[in-house]
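Supplementary Methods S3. Complex input for the nicotinamide-adenine-dinucleotide-bound model.
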Amino acid sequence: MTDLPTLDHWINGAPASGASTRTAPVFDPARGVAQKNVRMASAADLGTAVAAARAAFPGWRDTSIAKRQSVLFTFRELLNKRSGELAAILTSEHGKVLSDAGGEIARGLEVVEFACSMPTLIKGEYSENVSTGIDVYSLKQPLGVVGIISPFNFPAMVPLWFFPLAIAAGNTVVLKPSEKDPSAANWMAELMKEAGLPDGVLNVVHGDKEAVDALLTHPDVASISFVGSTPIARYIYETASANGKRVQALGGAKNHMLVLPDADLDLAADAAVNAGFGSAGERCMAISVVLAVDAVADALIEKITERMATLKTGDGRRGCDMGPLITGVHRDKVSGYIDVAAADGATVVVDGRGVTPDGDANGFWLGPTLLDKVPLSSAAYTDEIFGPVLSIVRVEGYEQGLDIINSSQYGNGTAIFTNDGGAARRFQNEVSVGMIGINVPIPVPVAYHSFGGWKDSLFGDSKAYGPAGIAFFTREKAVTSRWLDPSHGGLNLGFPQHD
Ligand code: NAD
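Predicted complex, serialized as structure tokens:
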């Protein structure tokens, strides 16, 4: 694979090859072939990026909010204008269909727009005359060098959840994207430079555990924002916290959709198919389990099956509905769960292994798959499959459905489909999940609310973006100030009290 192009790191405003000679292949999943190599950083390469970010920090921190805001405004304009280029990169390395890549960029752009209002978001508070002649006010200041580690499934949107807010707040960044689809990060970093960002403020380092471990333990890194699978999220949280860093670590998911008998079944079937098979199920907010109340389960399955029959699986550049999986290994792992479910007693209603894709035969294909009567003890139910496999679990009613959701180790997203406002209200109150949809299947909050799950779907106490993102990327100072007038003064060793 030596004749393939090699993607460099992006350090101090320019491509950088680093000292490490390790590389990894980047595939085109719809063709099943490597299209480039990506450099895999050593700890020393990571250190070079942190040093660049550290050197850029004082100047960027002291740059006016207006100037920082104007860079974000320009970035927004450029990203809007050139989103087609980025979408093509996403489709070619991740495999998701072009329209879905466009959706990913649009949701990321929302956070850029939110970051453009940093002058308002970073305002402190002021209390005048808390004691005679004394004022107290708070300041929100940046942390310094912040680290971001992102997963393969949203190579543009997840970095965009973090770096625009971090940078607008005055921090400098080292981003370690997924090595499986790394090019989007370089493309965005270059665009930030074009938008006027000074060199060193946003750096991209490619790699694997070696680079991540160096970031987690580097003394000049103040915080870590991580999104990925639960075992790695837990490791990141524990390691980075033990190294004195502020950490937000978002993990995996197993999202349930509860369909009550009074639901609009056509709406519920559309939702289950869209949220189950969009992006080939490789979304942390995908619906992977439909909890169907017995009374409507057969009718719902029939409607879901009808819709699945219309889905076209194939190359995302050809106007298909669903693309390939990220790698051959992952495709095989996902399709293995179909055997597991069947062996455990589930019914395979639609088997995606027989799909005829509109694309290269070597692509990492698996068609939409529907399993019914999946036992709760089966690994097909308990594991996060992260592919186009939708499981039906039949329940007697609301209580049993709620119980199942609340027994899951995960608590990222969930949805209820019902026309009963009282049931929906009870659900939002009783369910142990961080993001809830009521007749909405993928309840990803807008940028001015915050994103994050409960339980093993999030480690640390900070969600991503929204108000939580501002709090995460800033630290507060409280200033108590007195400007003396000649009447003040004198000795008093007592604890300060108000007068
Ligand atoms: P992953 O955990 O394998 O990788 C995430 C990042 O961690 C990558 O940058 C990777 O290089 C790095 N990494 C992998 N193994 C590591 C190790 N042993 N030590 C240190 N770093 C390591 O996740 P993925 O497969 O890229 O992404 C899919 C997962 O991400 C799914 O579980 C999905 O649910 C989750 N996800 C969660 C959210 C959320 O908001 N909760 C959003 C998107 C994806």
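Residues 6-251+457-480 form a domain with the Aldehyde Dehydrogenase; Chain A, domain 1 fold (CATH 3.40.605.10). The mean pLDDT is 97.
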